[in-house]
Automatic annotation (TrEMBL):
<dbReference type="InterPro" id="IPR029063">
    <property type="entry name" value="SAM-dependent_MTases_sf"/>
</dbReference>
<dbReference type="InterPro" id="IPR013216">
    <property type="entry name" value="Methyltransf_11"/>
</dbReference>
<keyword id="KW-0808">Transferase</keyword>
<dbReference type="GO" id="GO:0032259">
    <property type="term" value="P:methylation"/>
</dbReference>
<feature type="domain" description="Methyltransferase type 11">
    <location>
        <begin position="60"/>
        <end position="154"/>
    </location>
</feature>
<dbReference type="Pfam" id="PF08241">
    <property type="entry name" value="Methyltransf_11"/>
</dbReference>
<dbReference type="GO" id="GO:0008757">
    <property type="term" value="F:S-adenosylmethionine-dependent methyltransferase activity"/>
</dbReference>
<protein>
    <submittedName>
        <fullName>Methyltransferase domain-containing protein</fullName>
    </submittedName>
</protein>
<keyword id="KW-0489">Methyltransferase</keyword>
Length: 273
């Protein structure tokens, strides 16, 4: 099953992710050594304040192909659907499901158009890093609101808006210099980090990610406007002492690059539709 949206943003992201699959990049490698305990620890549901009894619950892994989250949720008894732009990523979800003897539903498409899922209602939408791959996050939030159950949860991990586009290579000897404007839909691109690849893969021929800045106000107001209430927020950072300035981990200790949200869909509570 494939959704209908095929604009330039779709084509760029699809081509890039198919190339990442071919290069066996980190985010395309299925997790094949899980058991229930490891799956529960990997997802960290208790830390996020989410129910960890998943038996029979409908879970959508949104833009989350690759055989990682889907396998973990399926091992915990969830009814799993994976929606992703990359056919190669979805194939890895199916391979992981076969490896564990579980079932997953796979749908190819763009997260800005979830019409292929309008016949479903999910208890949990699990959305790993991908929001910045589209210009307007609000389009995605409107679609999520159409497929999540009332009282259900939306887990979102995304770029920290204040540091989007900044990396450890911006070290100037004293700190990390912000140069890009803090404005919605400002386009940015930068090389993949070294840890995305290993000795068996080569990312030099793969185009850099094309990302679009989403301000914190757009993210928060966009989600509250759709009827979501914030229940959890954490910053993904490093707190190890003695890190080398200019290294990725030191950068993470100064400028947390990612945020992790949990939202509950409660339309009408704040006067929203």
């Amino acid at each position: 099953m494939v959704s209908a949206m095929t604009d330039d943003v779709y084509r760029y992201n699809e081509e890039r992710w198919e190339a990442l699959v071919a290069a066996d990049a980190l985010f395309t490698r299925p997790m094949l050594d899980l058991d229930e305990e490891k799956a529960r620890a990997y997802l960290g549901l208790a830390r996020l304040g989410l129910p960890d009894d998943l038996a029979g619950r409908k879970v959508l892994c949104l833009a989350g192909g690759g055989g990682q989250q889907s396998a973990a949720f399926a091992l915990l008894g969830a009814d799993v659907t994976v929606f992703d732009i990359s056919a190669g990523q979805l194939e890895r979800d199916r391979s992981a499901a076969e490896h564990y003897g579980v079932g997953v539903r796979t749908v190819q498409g763009d997260m800005r158009d979830l019409s292929a899922l309008y016949d479903s209602s999910f208890d949990l939408v699990w959305h790993p890093y991908s929001l910045t791959f589209v210009p307007d996050s609000r389009v995605v939030f409107r679609e999520v609101a159409k497929v999540v159950e009332k009282g259900g949860h939306y887990h979102l991990m995304c770029a920290n808006p204040f540091f989007s586009g900044l990396t450890h290579s911006s070290w100037n000897g004293e700190g990390y210099t912000l140069r890009q404007p803090y404005t919605d839909e400002a386009a940015t691109s930068y090389p993949d980090q070294e840890w995305v690849y290993d000795r068996t893969s080569d990312g030099r021929s793969i185009r850099e990610p094309r990302e679009y800045r989403q301000t914190l106000s757009r993210i928060v107001n966009g989600l509250t406007g759709e009827g979501f209430l914030l229940t959890h927020l954490s910053e993904v950072h490093s707190d190890r002492p003695g890190l080398e300035p200019g290294s990725w981990e030191h950068f993470m200790s100064v400028a947390p690059p990612w945020l992790e949200f949990v939202w509950q869909y409660r339309p009408g509570v704040l006067g929203t539709a």
